[in-house]
Amino acid sequence: MSDSDGLAKREHWGSRVGFIMAAAGSAIGLGNIWRFPYLVGKDGGAAFVVIYLIITLFIGLPVMIAEFAIGRAAQKAPVLAFKALNVSPFWSLIGWMGTIAGGFLTLSFYNVVGGWTIKYIISSLTGLMEIADAGNSGDFFSSFIGQSYQVIVFQALFLAITMGVVIGGVSKGIERACKVLMPTLFVIMIILIIRSVTLPGAEAGLKFYLSPDFSKLTGETFLDALGQSFFSLSLGLGIMLTYGSYIGKEEQLPSSSAWTAGLDTVIALLAGLAIFPAVFAMGFEPGSGAGLSFITLPAVFAKMPAGMIFSFLFFLLLFFAAVTSSMSLLEVAAAFAIEKFHMTRKEAVYGVGFIILVLGIPSATSLAGGPKIYGKDFFDAAEYVCNNVLLPLGSFLASVFVGWFWLPQAIKEITNDGKLKFGWLNTWIWCVRFVAPLAIAYIFYAGLKW
């Protein structure tokens, strides 16, 4: 759709491969390579991985299919989708929550971490390894995030890169970028895995990651696994609903959803293979939390032969993963502005980009010791509201809507008007009606602990 076309012609993906690459790119982000490994380390290793895989299969995948179906049937961005479906205005709440949570709030703090990846790509080649080798990687990170002006500059740079892609449109911008970034991401990941598993002492890390000890399971393990599955698959953020609106009517939604969820899960599992053998081989603690990527891993790389190169590759990998997700988050907000206010794509991207930059400044500065919100800094508070409130609530409502109020139309959409045989249809119905809503309701209730 050109700027002069307005709303006359809706954009679509140029190919099935391009759509899957873009959807998988959205799902494959910081959640896989930054968040997944530190949760594995925190929650006991392989036992967490098993629970995560089960939840992704029986809860995450059914909800993804449901969101794709809503988007394709409506051919609209999340806020206007439910009006297009001629259902109760109440359900538009799903679209509003997805747009606010995904398009604006999540991207506001996501850009901050994206900016960190750019800083670390540069620093990997300009002295970070010497600092980390001296045992000062934690001090380096604290010093960096304590300089708010520097964090804001890198945040703005990351956002500018994202905007540059999204301005290009769906097929010529997002799809084209993902066709390049996704294969590159895989190649870098394989290089890092080969280096990691061939280090002396890597066996201990492989055992921690691949041999489940179910005695380590706690209630928090299940909560973290459910939250991680939804965060990683980009559910409840308006992304899959928006991407679904660009899918052609001939596309097979179940298989596309399976490919998207499968690629996302594979990358998360590969990230663990790249990280844990190296962490154990170098004698570091796997449960070091959110600082695993930016504090522990630089110290790990510093002790490796050619550590500078592997540090550079890892943070380049992290950047690629972050930008493929940030593009999808920005597209949610841009699509809303295009449809709601009849803006051109360029106007929409510039407008919402500026708003998101301003919204992200409190997150960028709060880590330097800014004001607290009931004991949390602004960055943690924004992440909490998105991951523990808006994301599960939006996903819950979407599964309830599809499972109980829109099921015949959803089945029609999923089976391409009955032309496509979906052997798992009854299982999907059971999951979207009962399993997903009940599990999401539990995570929502249990997660409301500020």
Please give the order of strands in the largest beta sheet: 1-2
Tally the beta strands. Answer: 2
Helix tally? Answer: 19
Strand composition percent = under 5%
Quote the distance from N terminus to C terminus. 44 Å
Class of secondary structure makeup: mainly alpha
Q: From the structure provided, what is the oligomeric state, counting identical versus distinct chains?
A: single chain
Low-confidence stretches: 1-8
Estimate the global geometry from the Cα principal axes: globular
Characteristics of this structure?
single chain, 450 residues, mainly alpha, two-stranded antiparallel sheet
Model description:
The chain is an all-alpha fold. It is built from 19 helices and 2 strands. It has a two-stranded antiparallel ribbon. Strand 1 and strand 2 (376-377) form a beta hairpin. The N and C termini lie far apart (44 Å).
Secondary structure layout plus pairing:
Blueprint: H1 16-27, H2 30-42, H3 46-74, H4 78-84, H5 92-124, H6 128-133, H7 137-145, H8 148-166, H9 170-197, H10 202-210, H11 219-232, H12 239-244, H13 253-281, H14 296-302, H15 307-341, H16 345-366, E1 372-373, E2 376-377, H17 378-405, H18 407-414, H19 425-447
Antiparallel strand pairs: 1-2
Helix pairs in contact: 1-9, 1-13, 1-15, 2-11, 2-13, 2-15, 3-4, 3-11, 3-13, 3-17, 3-19, 4-5, 5-8, 5-15, 5-16, 5-17, 8-15, 8-16, 9-13, 9-15, 10-13, 14-15, 15-16, 16-17, 17-19
